[in-house]
Specification:
By secondary structure, the chain is of the alpha/beta class. It is about 35% helix and about 15% strand. It is built from 24 helices and 24 strands. α17 runs parallel beside α18. The chain is globular, with a radius of gyration of 27 Å. The two termini are about 35 Å apart.
């Protein structure tokens, strides 16, 4: 009997504990994401009853939603929104100007005229100008729009919300109070709607360890060296007994809110290890989800992809595996990393219908490749295969037009009519088709969704300092055997909060946000609360930040970017890009250089480059009028040719050979792409590169132009020339290095 291709979408909904022990919240993201991302996702799905999916709700998120619903949660943003504008003090006004635009301005600010007007006043004139010129009316509108913009488009037709959107300006305190009431009304519907759809069979709801800790690191921080043998480690944290505590609390909360026991577990950050498996099985979970990189390392099988990004070993990835432990059997599913990332990071930059068609096209290609692997000569599937697409269910939508509604409607509409693809929950697939493949639990690789390692949460000096602080606090709690969860719940709740993964995510190299200092503070506040609950002296180091939060000037990319190539140098567009500071460097590009800095990054479609110049710089005058992007691929065998410029210095990198060259005439913005051939020849290739220069020079080069395989490593140098004569190159020391997604 032929089978459709089964596809399991798993959406992960998570927020860390923003609440301090005084009951006040430090950040507003549970409330704001709650009005935009948790309810609408499943309400939209409900319109397509043939499609089944899985949603993971983290316990720390549910707890905080319940506080807001009860009216006991107040964050600084909410307190200001509910304050009469005439009572605002200068420091509060400065905070509002600085933080009440913390949203993607393309999708959440620019569509609303008044919000956009205020945003561009701050962008063009600066914070001091706003402090001097804004009146109560401006602050009142900004306080309102910071909340209004987060209502999901699915709710825009509701009478009150429609009225506020049409009103646009002149919001009163009464308006802002009613906006807050509407937020709570939406939050109140989230968990009941998930329960309703689970009971109807269209949805499966899963859970995560209580406060989202990295379970392998709770068992033993030394496991960081499984994936990175030379990793620098903190003092050893080894408290595996905390694993069943987190699992048990999540289990009990789930039973109370959903009237049944959970079957699936989303391990925090999809981080797994052999040591955690018995605890998961003993608690009663039946399956868990992690990443393809973990499976690849477990099977000692690297997953290769073709030029379109499709896996060449589909028969290994698109199936569940059974792992037997002394405490019971577990099923494991492994997500397709690239398909998940396309939704999470790339499709937002494409037209909704095109993006949906691309995803369905990938699924059809997976089905064809699996049929070929089955070897029966037909095009239909004789075996039941499962493609798992698992990703963050909240943050990606901020980058989509109308919060992803058009994309999901196109996708769901297409899949509802496609008889060759069937969307399922993980449990219903496992019930009908139990795993036929397995591996010993000891073989399971210790790693996460990030590169199959744990380096995002340990190994960096700042991350290690945080672990040392946590280790010391955990030992102090162990020294108080009388402080049980029943007799001193405050101490244990503080520990659980501090064990959450999010603090370590933001420490050190790898990730940064406008709230780094606040995440640092929250982590230390949780540890301080533990000491205070035990009546122990608070170590002085907890009164000081774990790391400095001064803005860095040079760093590698911290995530995918999707800038609009218009030459505006929009800071939000390049927020996660790598950065090189040029002005002030030694050598040819000295402090007087007209080039100030370079930003670079990528998504699955393009490589992006931005160059900032001093004001008034013109090509052919202050800088040469030609820019050459020179690429080579150090680990790949291919033709490479000498740079086709005159007057080249005989030193690195100008004496290197390269494989691709994109020549840009900075005066006309015209581009020429060349590819290296044998005998140092270059041949012209067609290109769809985009170039714009207004405030900054911005460039997008499609990966398709370069015809590169996913995961290729590349190195690039930028070279200026005039009429084919070399003038200078940047960066002077080293390369711009990147990996093709």
């Amino acid at each position: 009997m032929p089978h459709p291709l089964h596809v399991a979408f798993i959406w992960h909904q998570h927020q860390p504990l923003y609440k301090y022990r005084d009951g006040k919240y430090r950040l507003p993201w549970v409330r704001l994401h709650g009005t935009k991302d948790y309810l609408d996702l499943i309400l939209l799905l409900e319109k397509y009853p043939k499609l089944h999916q899985t949603v993971n709700l983290v316990p720390s998120l549910i707890l905080q939603l319940e506080d807001y619903i009860a009216g006991t949660a107040f964050d600084p943003y909410l307190e200001l929104a509910l304050m009469p504008t005439e009572q605002l003090q200068p420091a509060q006004k400065q905070f509002i100007i600085r933080h009440f635009f913390d949203a993607n301005h393309h999708t959440l600010i620019d569509p609303h005229p008044r919000y956009s007007e205020l945003y561009h006043q701050r962008s063009e004139h600066g914070e001091p100008w706003c402090l001097e010129h804004w009146i109560d009316r401006d602050y009142g509108d900004l306080l309102a729009w910071h909340n209004l913009a987060w209502f999901d488009p699915l709710f825009w037709e509701e009478s009150e919300i429609a009225h506020w959107l049409k009103q646009d300006r002149d919001f009163t305190l009464s308006d802002r109070q009613r906006i807050y009431s509407k937020q709570r009304e939406i939050l109140r519907r989230i968990v009941p709607q998930h329960r309703k759809m689970q009971e109807s069979g269209q949805l499966e709801v899963t859970t995560t360890p209580y406060t989202h800790p990295i379970l392998p690191l709770l068992a033993d921080t030394n496991v960081g060296r499984v994936a990175v043998p030379n990793m620098d480690l903190p003092k050893r944290f080894q408290w595996a007994e905390d694993i069943p505590r987190h699992l048990g609390k999540a289990w009990d909360m789930y039973k109370d809110r959903f009237g049944c026991v959970p079957r699936g577990l989303w391990p925090s950050e999809q981080a797994v290890s052999p040591e955690m498996l018995p605890y998961v099985a003993r608690q009663g979970f039946k399956w868990l989800c992690t990443d393809e990189s973990v499976l690849g390392n477990t099977l000692k099988q690297y997953f290769h992809r073709d030029g379109a990004g499709n896996v060449l070993e589909p028969e290994l990835l698109y199936r569940p595996y059974q792992v037997s432990t002394p405490d019971g059997d577990l099923s494991m599913v492994f997500r397709d990393h690239r398909l998940s990332d396309l939704i999470g990071f790339t499709y937002s930059g494409m037209p909704a219908e095109t993006a949906a068609a691309d995803l369905v096209g990938h699924l059809h290609e997976i089905s064809r490749s699996l049929a070929a692997k089955e070897g029966h000569g037909g095009t239909s599937l004789e075996k039941p295969w499962l493609v798992t697409i698992a990703l963050d269910g909240e943050n990606c939508w901020e980058h989509y037009h109308l919060d992803g509604k058009p994309f999901l409607e196109h996708l769901y509409g297409t899949l509802s009519e496609d008889e060759t693809i069937k969307l399922v929950t993980v449990s219903e697939f496992l019930d009908e088709f139990p795993p036929t493949a397995s591996f010993p639990p000891a073989d399971l690789h210790t790693g996460s969704w990030v590169d199959g390692s744990l380096t995002t949460w340990i190994g960096d000096p700042a991350k290690n300092r945080a672990w040392d602080l946590l280790t010391a606090a955990r030992q102090v709690l162990a020294n108080h055997p009388e402080a049980t969860e029943e007799t001193n719940s405050a101490a244990w709740e503080a520990l659980y909060a501090a064990e959450g993964s999010d603090w370590f995510w933001w420490f050190g190299y790898g990730h940064s946000s406008n709230q780094d200092a606040m995440f640092d503070q929250l982590f230390r506040e949780h540890l301080i609360a533990l000491y205070q609950a035990l009546n122990e002296p608070v170590p002085p180091e907890l009164r000081q930040p774990v790391e400095s939060h001064e803005r860095r000037t040079t760093y590698r990319p911290e995530g995918f970017i999707h800038p609009t190539i218009d030459g505006s140098g929009d800071e939000q567009d390049w927020n996660f890009a790598g950065r090189l500071e040029i002005g002030g460097a030694s050598g040819t590009m000295h402090q007087a250089s007209p080039i100030q800095r370079i930003f670079y990054g990528a998504d699955h479609l393009n490589f992006y480059l931005r160059m900032d110049f001093k004001a008034g710089v013109k090509p052919g005058l202050e800088i040469p009028n030609e820019l050459n992007l020179m690429w080579f691929y150090p680990k790949e065998t291919m033709h490479n040719s000498l740079i086709p410029l005159a007057n080249l210095p005989r030193q690195a990198p100008t004496n290197y050979r390269f494989h691709h060259r994109l020549l840009i005439d900075l005066t006309t913005k015209y581009t020429w792409l060349h590819e290296a051939m044998d005998y140092d020849r270059w041949e012209a290739r067609s290109s769809n590169a985009l170039v714009a220069w207004e405030k900054s020079l911005e460039i997008a080069v499609p990966w398709a132009d370069l015809q590169l395989e996913p995961d290729y490593g590349l190195q690039m140098s930028l070279m200026f020339s005039d009429c084919g004569r070399y003038r200078q190159h940047i960066p002077e020391q080293g390369w711009i290095s990147l990996q093709v997604p």
